[in-house]
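User: Please fill in residues for this 94-position structure.
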C-alpha cells in the first residue's frame, strides 16, 4: 500500500502546484478550457495518463470547466500518487 503524506509534505507540494487546493483528504483543481471540445480533449489526455499510472481521478465536467479531484482511496488520503498525477494534469493543461 502507498504511504500517506504528512500535512507538511502536502503543504510544501502545493506551493509547486498552483491552482490545486486541499479539501480534507483530497486535492482539487478546476481548469477552464476555451471550448467544450477542448475540455473533453483534456479529459481524454488525463484519462490516458491516469490509466498508465493506474491512479484515477474523480472528474466533473461542466461545459468548459472541468474539476479534477485526487485522493488515494485505498490508502485513505493523499499519497505521492496524487501529487504526481496533479503535476501530470498541470503539464497536460499547459
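Assistant: Residues filled in for all 94 positions:
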Amino acid at each position: 500500500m502507498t504511504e500517506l503524506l504528512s500535512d507538511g509534505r502536502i503543504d510544501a507540494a502545493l506551493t509547486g502546484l498552483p491552482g490545486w487546493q486541499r479539501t480534507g483528504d483530497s486535492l482539487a483543481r478546476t481548469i477552464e478550457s476555451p471550448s467544450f471540445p477542448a475540455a473533453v480533449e483534456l479529459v481524454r489526455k488525463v484519462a490516458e495518463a491516469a490509466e498508465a499510472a493506474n491512479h484515477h481521478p474523480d472528474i466533473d465536467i461542466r461545459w468548459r470547466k472541468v474539476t479534477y479531484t485526487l485522493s488515494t482511496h485505498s490508502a485513505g488520503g493523499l499519497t505521492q500518487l496524487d501529487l504526481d498525477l496533479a503535476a501530470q494534469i498541470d503539464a497536460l493543461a499547459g
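For context: Residues 11 and 66 are 23 Å apart (CA to CA).
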